[in-house]
Design goal:
This protein has helices at 31-35, 53-66, 75-88, 133-136, 164-175, 218-229, 274-287, and strands spanning 11-14, 17-20, 38-46, 49-50, 94-102, 117-124, 138-147, 180-185, 190-193, 197-202, 205-209, 234-237, 249-254, 258-265, 268-269. It is α+β, with helices and mostly antiparallel strands. It has two domains: 11-124, D-amino Acid Aminotransferase, Chain A, domain 1; 133-287, D-amino Acid Aminotransferase, subunit A, domain 2 (D-amino Acid Aminotransferase, Chain A, domain 2). The strands form two sheets. Strands 7, 8, 9, 10, 11, 12, 13, 14 and 15 form a nine-stranded mixed beta sheet that branches. The chain has a six-stranded antiparallel beta sheet with strand order 2-1-6-5-3-4.
């Protein structure tokens, strides 16, 4: 599938029914467009099965609650809708996007309690998020922005507004020939990339930033579980920027990114080593099992 996401064949599930792709529109005065009252999930379907589908649907409900609105569909109804979308579009290997938002209604200021909440689910074929970086290792920039304090935003929600600095940082990275950008947090500690969590290897042990100011990704949790199953020591901890020089391997995790090796962050280089390749292969096998 290629071309504009607004001009494609297929069906999108929207507020309880399947509609033509090009007709899945919202009003220009939707609250989400003006005040970022929107949450979403990104999921991958492999061989007809969405990996950890229910966990994603449950997190969608959690994220909405963090933004003070309630999705008018149960987790079971969301699960059924995702199945309907895949079937309607004849997809067995796809990326699935569920999004819930406050629409246009009686309120058009910051407050929006009287506005209806909508839900839409779309699915499409999508290859490697970082292209050939999945084989040779991604090149990563260091973002000028920092992940904010949990006292300022709902850091554990997958909320659209939290991605504003991700977009600007990824644009800046791509302008430099990089695939992505690494954020530090408000304290100056290593945090995450624009749409993926990050892992490092040193002396056979794995180190990853503690998920206290950013989304604790479902793929991140899965990879940590697999590493522990392999009896590999995993340290979830504060990581200082100056430690980057001492790490041997690095990879990113996320539903879109899956497990992608990193070859360079700023001036620091990393080997696309055995452990990175093993955990990537293990993840590929798991999601297709």
């Amino acid at each position: 599938m290629a071309g504009s996401y607004a001009d494609r064949d297929g069906k999108i599930w929207m507020d309880g029914q399947l509609v033509d792709w090009r007709a899945a529109n919202v009003h220009v005065l939707s609250h989400a467009m003006h005040y970022a009252s929107s949450v979403f999930e990104g999921e991958r379907c492999y061989n007809g099965k969405i990996f950890k589908s229910r966990e994603h649907s449950e997190r969608l409900h959690f994220s909405a609650g963090e933004l003070d609105f309630q999705i008018p569909y149960t987790v079971d109804e969301i699960e059924a809708a995702k199945t309907a979308v895949l079937q309607a579009n004849g997809l067995t290997d796809a990326y699935v996007r569920a999004v819930a938002w406050r629409g246009a209604g009686e309120d058009m200021g910051v407050a929006s309690a009287r506005n209806p909440v909508h839900l839409a689910i779309a699915a499409w074929e999508w290859g490697n998020y970082y292209g050939d970086a999945k084989m040779k290792g991604a090149k990563i920039d260091i973002a000028k922005w920092k992940r904010p304090s949990p006292e300022t935003i709902p850091v554990h929600a997958k909320a659209a507004g939290l991605y504003m600095i991700c977009t600007t940082s990824k644009h800046a990275a791509e302008a430099k020939g990089c695939s992505d950008a690494l954020f530090m947090d408000y304290r100056g500690y290593v945090a995450e990339c624009t749409g993926a969590n990050i892992f490092f290897v040193k002396d056979g042990e794995v180190h990853t930033p503690k998920a206290d100011v950013f989304l604790n990704g479902i793929t991140r949790q899965t990879v940590i579980e697999r590493l522990k199953d392999k009896q590999i020591q995993v340290h979830e901890r504060v990581i200082l920027p100056e430690e980057l020089e001492g790490f041997e391997q690095c990879w990113l995790t996320g539903t879109a990114a899956e497990v992608t090796p990193v070859g360079q962050i700023g001036d620091y280089n990393f080997e696309v080593g055995t452990l990175c390749r093993d955990i990537a292969a293990d993840y590929e096998k798991l999601v297709r099992s």
